[in-house]
Write a structure and sequence with these properties.
The chain is α/β, with parallel strands linked by helices. It has one domain: Arginase, Chain A (3-Layer(aba) Sandwich). 39% of the residues lie in helices and 13% in strands. The strands form 2 sheets. A 7-stranded parallel beta sheet has the order 1-4-9-8-5-6-7, with helices on both faces. A two-stranded antiparallel sheet has the order 2-3. The radius of gyration is 18 Å and the shape is globular.
Length: 342
């Protein structure tokens, strides 16, 4: 069974003209309601995340700063990241819903799950808001699985056009969390190079896949080449997928050139490794994607894949006409660097 959450209060976090806007989730809501399979999926609701859950990842002083900033009326936390008077509460509710899905998957109430919420989280650092993100949603979910459910090892896969620098920072020296990020090379935030592999005890537990622009749907093949051996070696108790639709060919913020079907196929590889190595325990949390209709189609496609791996994926935008980029050299470099064999 696939469980979901939807953050009804999300529109209280809004800034006119900003690409991370309420229309994103409203388009997703409409797509789910229009699909009988998705409309029937169980939806969980939960209280806002407790402060103790947030402090497993974030410094208390940072949480105090963001909360006070919002209470004082909000504004711009940095050049990209805004907050309204309600933003801290919205972000806490978003994380609370995500943790409820972790609880459901870890206890067997649900087989897998997708938290449909905003703002995104993978750029949020332990002590800094960044890149539209206030709280490190996926990182908090991983720690919750460990602290509340005794998970020894958690895999976090980041499928978004931008590198999940915040998630990486949270676990860079931690061998209990394997972080694998596939993202467009040499764009914001400027991190995620192949040689960033972890530090101290965490050396080798960060895997970056910096993909050249225009790669197209070859990304799913890259995942098939590197994820199964990585995950078989790590043997996680839970897989968390940070999913963004901004690798799509029409997204305005980058240029990886994937289709909706290609995004669903890449997410499907993550689903397969969760089934093979983590007892099927997979929780997806929403990251980027800035054309609402494309985001809606992509989320619906991934949800259909989670609910029924044999389901036909509807791709209303079709494939790209540009030739794909050969990712075999990148796959070979990753296999060599992380000693995955041929």
């Amino acid at each position: 069974m696939t469980a979901t959450t939807f953050l009804d209060e999300h529109a209280q976090h809004s800034e006119p003209g900003h690409p991370e806007r309420p229309a994103r989730l409203e388009a997703v809501r409409a797509a789910i309601a229009a699909d009988p399979l998705l409309a029937g999926l169980p939806r969980l609701d939960a209280p806002p995340a407790r402060r103790s859950a947030l402090e497993r990842v974030h410094f208390p002083e940072y949480l105090d700063l963001v909360e006070a900033f919002c209470e004082q009326g909000g504004g711009d936390l940095d050049v990209d990241t805004y907050a309204t008077p309600a933003s801290f509460d919205v972000a806490r509710q978003s994380v609370g819903n995500l943790l409820a899905l972790v609880d459901a998957v870890m206890t067997g109430e649900a087989g897998n799950a997708f938290a449909i919420a905003r703002p995104p989280g993978h750029h949020a650092r332990p002590a800094q808001a960044m890149g539209f993100c206030l709280l490190a949603n996926a990182a908090i979910a991983a720690r919750h699985a460990q602290m509340a459910h005794g998970a020894d090892r958690v895999l976090v896969v980041d499928l978004d056009v931008h590198h999940g620098n915040g998630t990486q920072e949270c676990f860079y020296d931690d061998p209990s969390v394997l972080v694998v990020s596939a993202h467009q090379d040499a764009i914001y935030p400027g991190t995620g190079r192949l040689g960033e592999t972890g530090a101290e005890a965490g050396e080798g537990f960060t895997v970056n896949l910096p993909i050249p622009a225009g790669a197209g749907d070859e990304v799913a093949g890259l995942y098939r080449g590197v994820l199964p051996p990585l995950v078989a070696r790590f043997r996680p108790d839970l897989v968390v997928l940070s999913f963004g639709a901004d690798p799509h060919r029409l997204d305005p913020l980058a240029g990886l050139n994937l289709s909706v079907a290609g995004l669903a196929e890449a997410a499907g590889v993550v689903h397969e490794v969760a089934d093979a190595e983590a007892g099927g325990r997979l929780v997806v949390t929403l990251e980027g994607g800035y054309l609402p209709d494309v985001l809606a189609a992509s989320v619906a496609a991934v949800l259909r894949r989670l609910a029924d791996p044999t389901a036909v994926i509807d791709d209303p935008f079709g494939p790209t006409s540009r030739p794909p980029v050969d990712l075999a050299p990148l796959a070979a470099a990753v296999r060599q660097l992380h000693r995955l064999g041929a």
